[in-house]
């Protein structure tokens, strides 16, 4: 036998030994894992195994999709069937909280066509699958750990039940963080009915967990437009229950009650709105003299504007883009349309990763801030031909038009970080000459006749909550603000608030902030009597006048 043959034989023998040792280590680790979890019940173990994909030895070639599935056409079925379901089954079977626990065995029957019953015997809800409640409860438990301030408020106030008698109808994103808010409101004495403000952001398992606990929820990920309005109506129009408070995100619920149920709207004691779009609608109603109830503008409160809008978007913009496109940002040319708090957060994140960032603005003050923060302020039409990514965050409509979409380069990524899906003219892309190709869940290639492709995310809807997750701690700040706003409006004497839109009192903003300082082990300096007198302040606050503008420079957010 030749020397090379002997070497080859020895290498083969060594390789076989390595494989066997590797298998032994894996077997040992598996045994250790089972031993550590031996206290689990058989039911829990079965549930855990069914929830988490297991990796079995593969003896044949992996088949990612069924042979009958097509990739060349965008789903065209209308009505109540979900438009968000990816043609690629592997895309929807993600176990991230953003994608929900959508098992591949789920049929595509609309939840509206099913009759589901929770453990309490109630059918007053409509979710994707009530059996996912256990998974949802785990998600909520995780969120609770990073929402200590909201839990603190819950413990302080639940004895007093400041929301006893309140019947709150809510329309927000239904996530684990929102669930903590809803259950806090219930602990404080409120009755709640809930629906989703976005057809793609609902965590199905969380909706199931809330319904299992007795909160009527009407929402599931991937609703059609018809489903969306039906769900809102189910929350409002129910026998023997009439809302007296509204918690809204986007203004759709307020608009529906105002238009469809004017008598109910007149009896509402207060509205709490947290989005730019919804607040704009409220001011329009107020200006026209049609707002017959007091409303609280949470969006422009300091604790929402300077934290949720800024810090939340600074972290979640990258998460959403990377999950959907796997894009590398270093050296990419990005346009951020709008340099408000959301735009500032997006720009800070992108700049930190080495992107070349442009800003578009209509406001000269925001434009000047962008310039001073080191960004070039341009018109979109000036750079649309060569940029790699376009992000809208203005709250306006038709920020990106069909003409601009036509001029984009091949492979340009287009997405929206504003609440409404009106910022990108998506409707103009649904024409016979353009082909839609679903690539992943929430990712579409829009193909022009010459072969050019534009990558559209979430069909122009809110990117971070449709395609990824958002930081729990920041949402705790917003949720605590919303809870206090509801308590204030519900308990305030009639003479305190007229039929208008109000900002949260400064003292309440400071209280929300103070609740969250303990997380960082932060210690506030206290004014002496002499210092308080010199500044003309109460030692316990508020520490700033209402006209004070908190610093929002980019260099204070990196």
UniProtKB/TrEMBL annotation:
Q: What class of enzyme is it?
A: hydrolase
Keyword Signal carried by entry: no
The cofactors it requires, by name, are: NAD(+)
> Gene Ontology terms, cellular component aspect?
cytosol
Q: Which Pfam families match?
A: AdoHcyase, AdoHcyase_NAD
Manner of cofactor binding, per the entry note = Binds 1 NAD(+) per subunit.
The alphabetical list of record keywords is: Coiled coil, Hydrolase, NAD, One-carbon metabolism
Q: Which residues form the S-adenosyl-L-homocysteine hydrolase NAD binding domain?
A: 309-470
- Listed Low complexity bias regions: 84-103
EC number, UniProt record = 3.13.2.1
Q: Pathway of this protein?
A: Amino-acid biosynthesis; L-homocysteine biosynthesis; L-homocysteine from S-adenosyl-L-homocysteine: step 1/1
Q: Name one GO molecular function term.
A: adenosylhomocysteinase activity
| UniProt-annotated stretches for the region Disordered | 73-120
Q: Which InterPro entries match?
A: Adenosylhomocyst_ase-like_sf, Adenosylhomocysteinase-like, Ado_hCys_hydrolase_NAD-bd, NAD(P)-bd_dom_sf, S-Ado-L-homoCys_hydrolase_CS
Query: In which domain of life is the source organism classified?
Result: Eukaryota
State the Gene Ontology BP annotations: one-carbon metabolic process; S-adenosylmethionine cycle
Coiled-coil region(s): 5-32
Catalyzed reactions per annotation: S-adenosyl-L-homocysteine + H2O = L-homocysteine + adenosine
Keyword Hydrolase tagged: yes
What is the similarity comment for this entry?
A: Belongs to the adenosylhomocysteinase family.
The molecule here is called Adenosylhomocysteinase
């Amino acid at each position: 036998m030749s020397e090379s043959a002997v070497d080859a034989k020895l290498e083969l023998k060594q390789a076989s030994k390595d494989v066997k040792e590797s298998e032994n280590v894996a077997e040992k680790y598996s045994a250790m894992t089972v031993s550590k979890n031996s206290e689990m019940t058989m039911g829990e173990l079965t549930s855990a195994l069914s929830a988490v994909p297991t990796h079995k030895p593969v003896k044949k070639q992996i088949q990612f999709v069924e042979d009958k599935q097509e990739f060349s056409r965008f789903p065209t079925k209308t009505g109540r069937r979900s438009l968000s379901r990816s043609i690629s089954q592997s895309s929807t079977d993600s176990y991230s909280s953003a994608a929900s626990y959508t098992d591949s065995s789920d049929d595509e029957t609309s939840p509206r066509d099913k009759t589901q019953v929770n453990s309490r015997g109630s059918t007053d809800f409509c979710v994707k699958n009530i059996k996912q409640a256990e998974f949802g409860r785990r998600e909520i438990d995780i969120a609770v750990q990073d929402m200590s301030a909201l839990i603190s408020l819950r413990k302080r106030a639940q004895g007093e039940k400041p929301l006893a008698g309140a019947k709150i109808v809510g329309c927000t994103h239904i996530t684990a963080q929102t669930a903590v808010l809803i259950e806090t409101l219930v602990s404080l004495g409120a009755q709640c009915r809930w629906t989703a403000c976005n057809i793609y952001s609902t965590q199905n398992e969380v909706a199931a967990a809330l319904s299992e606990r007795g909160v009527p929820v009407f929402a599931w990920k991937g609703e059609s437009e018809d489903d969306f309005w039906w769900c809102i109506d189910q929350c409002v129009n129910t026998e023997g229950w009439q809302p007296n408070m509204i918690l809204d995100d986007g203004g759709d619920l307020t608009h529906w009650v105002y238009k469809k149920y004017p008598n109910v709207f007149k009896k509402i004691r207060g509205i709490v709105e947290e989005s730019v779009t919804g607040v704009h609608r409220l001011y329009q109603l107020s200006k026209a003299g049609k707002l017959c109830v007091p409303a609280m503008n949470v969006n422009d409160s300091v604790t929402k504007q300077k934290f949720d809008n800024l810090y939340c978007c600074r972290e979640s913009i990258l998460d959403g883009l990377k999950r959907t496109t796997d894009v590398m940002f270093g050296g990419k040319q990005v346009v951020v349309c709008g340099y408000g708090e959301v735009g500032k957060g997006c720009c800070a994140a992108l700049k930190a990763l080495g992107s070349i960032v442009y800003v578009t603005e209509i406001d000269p003050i925001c434009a000047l801030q962008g310039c001073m923060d080191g960004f070039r302020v341009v018109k979109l039409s000036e750079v649309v031909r060569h940029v790699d990514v376009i992000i809208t965050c203005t709250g306006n409509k038709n920020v990106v038009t069909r003409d601009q979409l036509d001029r984009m380069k091949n492979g340009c990524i287009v997405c929206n970080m504003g609440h409404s899906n009106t910022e990108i003219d998506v409707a103009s892309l649904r024409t016979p000459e353009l082909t839609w190709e679903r690539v992943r869940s929430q990712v579409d290639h829009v193909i022009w006749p010459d072969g050019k492709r534009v990558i559209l995310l979430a069909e122009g809807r809110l990117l971070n909550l449709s395609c990824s997750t958002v930081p729990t701690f920041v949402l705790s700040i917003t949720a605590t603000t919303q809870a206090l706003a509801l308590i204030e409006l519900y308990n305030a004497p009639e003479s305190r608030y007229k039929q208008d839109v109000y900002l949260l009192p400064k003292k309440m903003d400071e209280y929300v902030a103070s609740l969250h300082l303990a997380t960082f082990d932060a210690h506030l300096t206290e004014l002496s009597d002499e210092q308080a007198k010199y500044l003309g302040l109460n030692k316990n606050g508020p520490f700033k006048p209402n006209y004070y503008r908190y610093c929002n420079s980019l260099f204070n957010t990196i």
